[in-house]
DNA sequence: CTCAGGTTTTACAACGTTATACACGCCGTG
DNA sequence: CACGGCGTGTATAACGTTGTAAAACCTGAG
């Protein structure tokens, strides 16, 4: 049988509320009383019943993290950092995966879990601004990632345009002139993606053409999509001397195709990815990549959500997390090798 | 404001309990009444409060999934399948990561979340049988993975010994004679790991020596550990003609080292991994691996936990999931290549 | 028309917690 | 020596749901 406040109260010979006060570190309790009650708590091994507490307080102690896919190690690492940050505030993380589909993202953002969670951290891919505009404001929402919404929600991300420009600049500084972009979205006329924009801006700034024929659109975000996009570019007769991919799995998929076609990385084609997943450090050719500060992103996301739980919710704001360009063999070449 | 049963009842002009009966599909409700109440429910947008329901019923509708690490894509894929299976039973998945440390695993298994979750799916690495023996039986527990416990809990896994033997047999059939094993545990005198046992058994069965000098112990389970282990073996002056790794990330880490040392895979050294993660299909050399049926494992785990929630808990049993050996370039070589 | 037997609906009491409002001392002040 | 004020503890009412038991309502037989 579970032991409740009532049992502890009976054991200590005090009222239920006094025990509750001790448990909650209420101020006005004499040290003597506090110790007496604590002794009973320890003796009976009391643990608070969270359901009852939640019922009373209207909070569940759970925040949801909704991600497009867990298969991408970037999200796995991010998840770990969110869990860590949440547990420091005695919060628990519920995981949803949306598959990056607009319907699922919509469902999640509308709060089909509304009765379970106190807050939501969402990393949208397909979701449109209008989908969020008429959202039921019940549950605080924090957005993560590349999409750029002009909406009254906290948004935590690195500066994707600047990061993409850094990546492309790195390629240009290495003497590359034809930089392909892998991972645009097929279904957007004017791609909302900031990474494409960064690619375009930096090329233009360098006086190079931002050749849309070198932009490959894809359906998904995985290795296979990167491979498909790379094949598509090569099969179209183009032979860029560099590739900037939307993320690391796509970059790795592209490198696989280059390898199959007998093209050397980086001698023939240099490759830069995005997210700096562990996998990129152990291929036959290690991958140059933009490395976001995942720990910071997770921490900031949790803090933002929790800050909105109180009555005095702060102004929605855009929070920039740190990032850096990590240079490896896919652009620099193998140090010791010929 | 949230709308409760009381509000719906007032709106429909019936008692609270009648609304509750409709919500719960209780039998004895006339169709007319059911429709009237349903109309009010829809009109007000009622959603049940789970905390209250939990308080009353003693169930939370949440199961926890505790994994050693999310970074390993195998666990990410497994998580996705568990979430899918759980949602089909209207259950929600809470994610914990233990880091594969015994302390964390112990904490989780002892149920520090006991007040929140109905059941627990645990994939232990370091945890010992004795740690589980004196467990508080409150929350149903299902074990996952390679560790072999003789305990009254459901255990879902593939036949690790058989799978490891299949992997090693494949190498032997290709003519390899010195098969190294990467990924034993440093801190176990008699390694409990079934995959090492399979390696040993198959070599012995083939009349080959199971040379313990070719078994590399490691501390972790990631790419870097595999790389370290491979370096260790090569630096010790050994030159095996095949490597069987505990999992895919370690196999990939090992392949990176072979590449650095100028050794060709599979011509000089063939490599087999375990888990068949997506990453293995896109390296410069694609990876032969044991591929467990992750979808089945997730589904079986969820069903096992939920089956134990009722009063008539079934006998604890060991459930074998399917697997197969997927042969790729790291053992077969590149088809078209010289 | 009454009453048994069954179905449908209702009132009320839990579940374990916290908030509210109040009672009880004890102090120092007028 | 009353009296307000403060610091401490207590009874009681919620929170939203479901199980229990009983009330109200039918139906058809005697």
What would you note in describing this structure?
In chain A, helix 11 links the parallel strand 8 and strand 9. Chain A has helices at residues 5-12, 16-23, 31-44, 50-57, 73-88, 102-110, 129-133, 160-173, 194-205, 223-235, 248-260, 294-307, 329-332, and strands at 62-67, 92-97, 119-122, 141-144, 154-157, 179-185, 215-218, 242-245, 270-274, 288-292, 318-320, 323-326. In chain A, 41% of the residues lie in helices and 17% in strands. By secondary structure, chain A is α/β, with parallel strands linked by helices. The first copy, chain A, folds into 3 domains: 5-48, 434 Repressor (Amino-terminal Domain) (Orthogonal Bundle); 57-158 and 294-307, 3-Layer(aba) Sandwich (Rossmann fold), CATH 3.40.50; 160-292 and 325-332, Rossmann fold. In chain A, the strands form 2 sheets. A 6-stranded parallel β-sheet of chain A has the order 2-1-3-4-5-11, sandwiched between helices. The first copy, chain A, contains 13 helices and 12 strands. Chains A and B meet through helix 4, helix 5, strand 2, helix 10 and helix 11 of A and helix 4, helix 5, strand 2, helix 10 and helix 11 of B. Chain A binds a DNA duplex (30 and 30 nucleotides) through helix 2 and helix 4.
């Amino acid at each position: 049988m579970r032991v409740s406040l009532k049992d502890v109260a009976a054991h200590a010979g005090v009222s239920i509320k006094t025990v509750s006060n001790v448990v909650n570190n209420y101020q006005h309790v004499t040290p003597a009383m506090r110790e007496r009650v604590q002794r009973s708590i320890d003796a009976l091994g009391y643990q608070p019943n969270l359901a009852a507490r939640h019922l009373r307080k209207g909070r569940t102690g759970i925040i949801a993290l909704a991600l497009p896919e867990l298969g991408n190690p970037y999200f796995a690492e991010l998840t770990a950092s969110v869990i860590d940050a949440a547990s420091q505030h005695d919060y628990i993380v519920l995981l949803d995966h949306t598959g990056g589909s607009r319907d699922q993202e919509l469902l999640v953002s509308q709060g089909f879990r509304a009765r379970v969670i106190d807050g939501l951290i969402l990393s949208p891919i397909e979701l449109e601004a209008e989908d969020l505009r008429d959202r039921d404001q019940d549950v605080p929402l924090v957005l993560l990632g590349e999409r750029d919404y002009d909406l009254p929600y906290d948004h935590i991300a690195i500066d994707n345009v600047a990061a993409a420009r850094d990546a492309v600049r790195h390629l240009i500084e290495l003497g590359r002139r034809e930089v392909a972009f892998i991972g645009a979205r097929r279904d957007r006329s004017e791609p909302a993606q900031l990474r494409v924009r960064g690619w375009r801006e930096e090329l233009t700034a360098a006086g190079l053409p931002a050749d849309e024929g070198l932009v490959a659109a894809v359906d998904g975000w995985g290795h296979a999509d990167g491979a498909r996009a790379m094949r598509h570019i090569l099969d179209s007769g183009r032979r860029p001397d560099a590739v900037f991919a939307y993320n690391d799995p796509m970059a790795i998929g592209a490198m696989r195709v280059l390898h199959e076609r007998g093209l050397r990385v980086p001698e023939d084609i240099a490759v830069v990815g995005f997210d700096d997943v562990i996998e990129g450090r152990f291929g036959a050719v290690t991958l140059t990549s933009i490395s976001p500060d995942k720990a910071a992103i997770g921490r900031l996301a949790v803090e933002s959500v929790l800050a909105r739980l109180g009555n005095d919710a702060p102004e929605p704001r855009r929070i920039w997390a740190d990032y850096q360009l990590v240079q490896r063999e896919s652009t620099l070449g193998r140090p010791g090798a010929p």
